[in-house]
């Protein structure tokens, strides 16, 4: 199969199987259980309570979609930098395509909003709760982030300040399940960025092009087999076990 050509979801690996589950119309509970995300969903669902304690819940409920997207763009660039504006603004970028080019942000929003509920129900999408959390901490870390080029304070931070956001959040939630939110978010972004979400067509169950994740991980694409795994080494036709590996059998004494 040619690299970058459309490929059947069923022919691909675990991350594509996850996308197939995501788009197949199965129940939220079934998806979370089959994807191993039940515990993560329960932890993320506690975010509104944390926001309320910080006085940020009203801001979360009033958050616009554009602000949420801008914030999560800043998160995606933080986890998998590329040549995009968000990566350059944080001072950590790459010439190779990154998470933004991989279409990670819309996939992350869908994952959070469709399968991870909050105690506020549909009035507070999970993506909005996460964005408010990041923005609230961003202003605490660097008050100058309250204004700037992007809509989101978190997106305006330097790479080092973004690290401090997660560090401070973990300090604030020490001893509670919420402390694991940092790892869950970063892991979800990395999984989606290196997967195929950005080029997966739910209508056909195929990929529309070569995923960015394949490029940045140097994955050559789907194949019936690899040269490295075909036949025996150096063209040998058969193999035998070396004498030094033979197991010596001791005669039984009666």
Overall spatial form:
elongated
Helix fraction bin: 40-55%
> Widest sheet: strand order?
1-2
The beta-strand count equals 2
Task: State the domain count.
Answer: 2
Write down the secondary-structure element order. Answer: HHHHHHHHHHHHEEH
Descriptive report:
- The chain has helices at 14-23, 28-35, 38-44, 47-54, 57-62, 65-79, 85-90, 104-115, 126-141, 153-156, 159-172, 181-193, 212-216; strands at residues 200-201, 206-207.
- With 254 residues, the chain is an all-alpha fold.
- It folds into 2 domains: 1-36 and 202-227, no CATH class; 41-193, no CATH class.
- Helix 9 packs across helix 11 (159-172).
- The longest helix has 16 residues, at 126-141.
- It is elongated.
Quick overview:
49% of the residues lie in helices and 2% in strands.
Throw out a few tags for this protein.
2 domains; 254 residues; 49% helix; single chain; mainly alpha; disordered N terminus; elongated; two-stranded antiparallel sheet
SSE diagram, text form:
Layout: H1 14-23, H2 28-35, H3 38-44, H4 47-54, H5 57-62, H6 65-79, H7 85-90, H8 104-115, H9 126-141, H10 153-156, H11 159-172, H12 181-193, E1 200-201, E2 206-207, H13 212-216
Antiparallel strand pairs: 1-2
